[in-house]
Amino acid sequence: MKVVILNNDFRVYWKERLFFLKQYLATRKIEFYAIEFFGKGSPYAFDVYNSNEQWWTCLFPDKSAVEISPKEVWEVLSSALFAINPDIIIAPSIVFYPGALGIRWAKKNNKKFIMFDDAMAGQVKRQFIVQWIKNLITKQADGFWLPSPNYHAGYAFLGPTKILFFYGFNCIDNQRFKAGTSNPMNHKTIICVARLVPIKNIDALIKAWAKIEASETGYKLVIIGTGPNYNNLTHLATALHLTSVEFLGTVPNDQLAAYYHKADAFILPSFSESWGLVVNEAMAAGLPVLLSDNINAAHCLLKEGENGFDFNARSTEDIENAILKFIRLSAAAKMQMSLNSLKEVDKLSYEKMGVQLTDALVKIHARKTKYTGAMAWIMINMWNGRYNTKGWDN
Fold first, then answer.
1. Rounded to the nearest 5°, which phi and psi values hold at 201?
2. What are the phi and psi torsion angles at 189 (to 5°)?
């Protein structure tokens, strides 16, 4: 069996997943290939990586999506896929180029198609006709690869269906973040790792922290990350006369675990997160987590009062209260939260991802090719997808 995974780009977390899956699937006699579309224009452009692997190619390594017509993308992709001749294509939501063009190629060539998505269906509001078209095309998939079972409810629009649902791709290399020894939980430090952009809501965290500092808890807040809001946030901390907030800027990925190990808890106040893999990182490092209830990872990994607390991102008072609830816990309770985080995050691992994906591939490969109705066929051939991530951080 040959399988190809497509994406706009494979930056940050996808890189390690791909190498794991290449090796894992090879032991199951499954040939695995990766095709990324664009070398430029990624919101994760800070993560520079040029693959020299024969099984992993980039269609337009020196261009961004805005420099290329959909027709050219389709022609180059088609050529690459014909050269591999995969049995199954895995691609993101049909909203984007890889999903829209991937399912088109699959249907034209009698192949199977799996869609992965870490945005909960229904979170993005669209006009009725646009949503109807998206739903129509989405229904033509053979499988859905989702982060966790709690995403399933968003696909009720499919009705009774034989589409296979499976889970677990939003995982990291947990072992890379685990500490060699248990965290003593006496660093008096809470850490936040995030791009410094509006949607991360770091200004509300800093305003809430002013109350924490006034309470004389002795704790400090460490913020790792950079972005267009960096100067505004540092100025805000200065204006509030905060002395217990540290901005560390960008930290290389291979050094990030050490900073988690010097903290007692992790906090993320985002207005929205399709998942939030920094939550996985922090929990794999043994940290209790304080999370906005708008973070999708929280719905799967956070157990209220067991390995952390949630809060309303739009209330600085609620953010403050969540922080204080953690700070006021006994040392034993904090240690137990640390152990609970490790236990919860181990439910999402590379090994479990590999097992679920392999099982799904075997089942889907054995099925008959789905019939595509005339209207769906027309829509699939008209819709090219898009590449528009400018609203992700607003």
1. 65, 35
2. -135, 135
Fold of 2-171+349-382: Rossmann fold (3.40.50)
What is the pLDDT, as a whole number, of residue 316?
97
Question: Would you kindly state where each structural domain of the chain is located, as residue ranges?
Answer: 2-171+349-382, 175-345
CA-to-CA distance for 43 and 143, rounded, in angstroms? 27
Distance CA 313, CA 271 (A): 6
Starting at the edge strand found earlier in the chain, the sheet holding 220-224 runs 245-249, 220-224, 189-193, 265-268, 289-292, 308-311
Radius of gyration of the chain (CA): 22
Task: Identify which of 362, 354, 369, 389 has the alpha carbon closest to the alpha carbon of residue 18.
Answer: 354
Instruction: Give the C-alpha separation, 29 to 348, whole Å.
Output: 24
- Please name every residue paired with 167 in a beta bridge, in sequence order, or none if there are none: 146
- Looking at residue 122, what is its pLDDT? 63
The answer to whether 328 and 219 are in contact (CB under 8 A) is no
Domain 175-345 part of CATH 3.40.50.2000: yes
Q: Which of 383, 394, 392, 390 is nearest to 131 (CA)?
A: 383
Which pLDDT score is estimated for 128? 76
Count of Cβ atoms closer than 10 Å to residue 374 Cβ: 7
How far from 63 is each of 13, 35, 42, 338, CA to CA, in Å? 22, 15, 11, 44
Amino acid at 283: M
What are the beta bridge partners of residue 91?
Answer: 115
Burial of 66 (0-12, 13-18, 19+ CB in 10 A): exposed
Task: Give every residue of the chain whose pLDDT is below 50, as ranges.
Answer: none
Query: What are the tens digits of pLDDT across the range 150-201?
Result: 888 778 777 777 899 999 999 999 999 998 888 899 999 999 999 999 999 9
Lookup: tokens for 171: 């995982």
Q: Are 266 and 190 within 8 A, CB to CB? A: yes
- Is residue 41 a contact partner of residue 371, using CB atoms and an 8 Å limit? no
Q: Of 382, 379, 370, 374, whose CA–CA distance to 107 is shortest?
A: 370
**Helix ranges restricted to H, the chain:** 13-26, 70-84, 97-108, 128-138, 174-177, 202-214, 230-239, 253-260, 277-284, 296-301, 316-327, 331-345, 350-366, 374-382
> Kind and range of the H or E element at 91?
strand 88-91
Residue located via tokens 């157990």? 303
